[in-house]
Amino acid sequence: MMSTLVLASNNAGKIAELTALLPGRDVRPQGDYFSEEAVETGHSFIENALIKARYAASRTGLPAIADDSGLEVTALNGEPGIFSARYAGRGANDTQNLYKLLEMMHDVPDGERQASYFCAMVVVRHAQDPTPLIGLGRWHGEILRRPEGTGGFGYDPVFYLPKWQCTAAQLSAEVKNQHSHRAQALKALVTQLSVE
């Protein structure tokens, strides 16, 4: 059983979420062991998550967990996709990325603004693990024409959820943590980890 998992991130929110959903396991941020970030050269969310997890496992000798996620917009052929965090350029912040998205969607009519958040979360037992555990999650919504709400991060202020009649930025953290793409991917992984 993997009692200690290295999270290929230093995000405190992710650590808290994983710790709550993985009772009995010690989830440690990679910053406890090393400071360098993996170079994400993959062409998909799954590939990038695996790159990060394998890098963390190789640096620590411990099992590792990583995720890669982003926004896919149907009218933009899946953009920004794996480039969601740097859509407006390397070093861009959330606001710059969000407004680049709105600019790209300026002429997309209402009714054709479907999008989804996607998350791939993986666990590797060691750096060369040939059978990594993979959990996937997808959260469907639509892109608004202007931001609404102050919660969340990334594209949340323009990601409208018809089921709740609000944006992800207006949704309570409790509801978001139960239904988001990341929550879905993590639940799929937890099911697999329970038999490990």
UniProtKB/TrEMBL annotation:
How the cofactor binds, per note? Binds 1 Mg(2+) ion per subunit.
Record has Nucleotide-binding as a keyword = yes
Question: GO annotations under biological process?
Answer: nucleotide metabolic process; purine nucleoside triphosphate catabolic process
The catalytic activity, as recorded, is: dITP + H2O = dIMP + diphosphate + H(+); ITP + H2O = IMP + diphosphate + H(+); XTP + H2O = XMP + diphosphate + H(+)
Which metal ions or organic cofactors does this protein require, according to UniProt?
A: Mg(2+)
Catalytic-site annotation from UniProt: 68
> Which GO cellular component terms, listed alphabetically, does the Swiss-Prot or TrEMBL entry include?
cytosol
Describe its partners and assembly state: Homodimer.
Family label: Belongs to the HAM1 NTPase family.
What is the recorded name of this protein? dITP/XTP pyrophosphatase
Q: What is the lineage of its organism?
A: Bacteria, Pseudomonadati, Pseudomonadota, Gammaproteobacteria, Thiotrichales
